Amino acid sequence: MATPREIAVAAEQRDIRNRWLLSSPALIIIFLAAIGPLFVVLLYSFMLKGDYGDVKPWQFSSDGWFGVFLQRDIFDDTLTIADAHISIFWRSVKLSLVTTLVTLFLGFPTAYFIATRPPQRRDIWLFLVTIPFWTNILIRTFAMQEVIRNEGIVNSVMIWIGLISAPVQIMFTDWAILFGMAYVYLPLMVLPLYASMEKIDFRLVEAGYDLYATRLQVLWRIIIPLVKPGIIAGSILVFIPSLGAYVTPRVLGGGKNMMLGNLIELQFGQGRNWPLGAALSITLMIIVTFALLVYVRNASKSGGSHG
Amino acid sequence: MARTFSVRTQPGFTFIAMFCFFLLYLPIVTLVVYAFNSGQSVAIWEGFSFRWFESAWHNRAVQEASLRSIFLAAFAATLSTLVATMAALATTRTAPYPGLTFKYAFINQPLMVPEIVTAVALLIVFSRIKVWTGYSGIAYLLAAHTAFCIPFAYLPIRARLENMDLTLERAAADLYATPWNAFKRVTLPLLWPGIIAGFMLAFVISLDDVVITEFVKSGGQETLPTYMLGQLRRVVTPEINAIATVFLLISVAFVTTFFIINRRKP
Known about the structure:
The structure holds 2 protein chains of 2 kinds.
Chain A lengths: L3 H41 L2 E3 L5 E6 L2 H7 E3 L6 E3 L1 H33 L3 H16 L2 H12 L4 H8 L13 H24 L4 H9 L4 H12 L1 H16 L3 H7 L6 H9 L5 H33 L1
Antiparallel strand pairs in A: 1-2, 3-4
Chain B lengths: L12 H23 L15 H8 L1 H32 L8 H13 L2 H19 L5 H24 L4 H8 L4 H30 L2 H6 L7 H9 L5 H26 L3
Helix pairs in contact in B: 1-11, 2-11, 3-6, 3-8, 4-6, 6-8, 7-8, 8-11
């Protein structure tokens, strides 16, 4: 005879089992076409490269990982630092950081502006930020290309007002990548900033002014600390896709100004060095995971103190 | 000497905000304007015409790529919304149970990994399967798109479910509705806006994808974005602008609908 307690436990276990069944199709699809393949990348990074791309199956080698920062001399097998890779890593990190700073500088006042509109107006301004966000990244990159090219509107206007006499070459430089990424990722900064600014209690700001704070002091000592979670979230949301950017540097940077994403692609295309490409991918993923961990730690900390 | 003092304003912020909105829309507007250029150039305005829309409409490659994009997005959005709805029902409105956090992490995982890494991973695995099976059809793209659409479909459905309490379903059960009937007559109608929002989000995400498609596609499987990426390497004519403009309109229509649906709270 089952006691009522046993029946309840059995019902709960049945419920949990049903919940696993119900979620299994989603989990299986994600495992097969997203998570599982990542383990294969890890495996491939430790294999010997094939002569025409791909790898030599089950022949293990650490060449892929050595290749991330080192290169082997073709004549005497000595290892030297791979300057080309270092400079691409450095460009990726540098451009991603600057992109984050630029979008923060532009996005902070914008989010603040939206958050201080009357409530019924905010949705419209927010919508104006959302539209570019949902526009295809390739289209936005292409639109940026038309603006900054030699015959584009930026150069035309600068010539027209007499700032310069001949077009300045922006396309295919690091500047083009920076402009493109800042443009493409700006909404990713504005939206989380807005979400935390919306919650600002302006009585605190008023109290600040009552205590003779200047506007700058109010901004620095009250508003910025209050929206710190938004600043961190926005920065992470911009930094991570910038680091892995592929389309923007490919279109605006041309072949010479590669970023990590393009370096990875190169190994699977002309480079024909899949283990190196796999090792580079894992490296990129480690950096991204590290950035996410910093974010999660900060978010839980500030979530605790601000409620 | 009464000067109004607003506690909310910060000097220069409105100016930067306006500049920001100007920056956001200048490239898009330029792109759309030159789609109507009658000349060959995307930089010199020669007069108004629809010729590039016509030429894009009659372009065989564009037609095929568009149809493939729409088919892919429709399939991926439908399947991902279906499995995401099931997953959302299984992960909300419950006391924490073993594996719940794991499921959240698993479902949201495609959002955490850089697209290029997923793309490379799929390239490796699918190229192996292509060699083994000899099949190189569209199923690879369908699988890849469905997988990365799931977290996007899941988000609004889960949000909607979390705002619905179990009272109505319990009432239905008290009135002797079978679980299936209670789901069909009570839960599903209430959940519907979330499902539609999830579907539309997934549809746009699939339609927009460049990187993963570029790595997974076999020969002759161009979607509209990968076709455009290929064209950008050549001399561009306003035909690209015309395609981009139509693409833009479709995205805007979807986002507007999504926005309207999501504003109605349960």
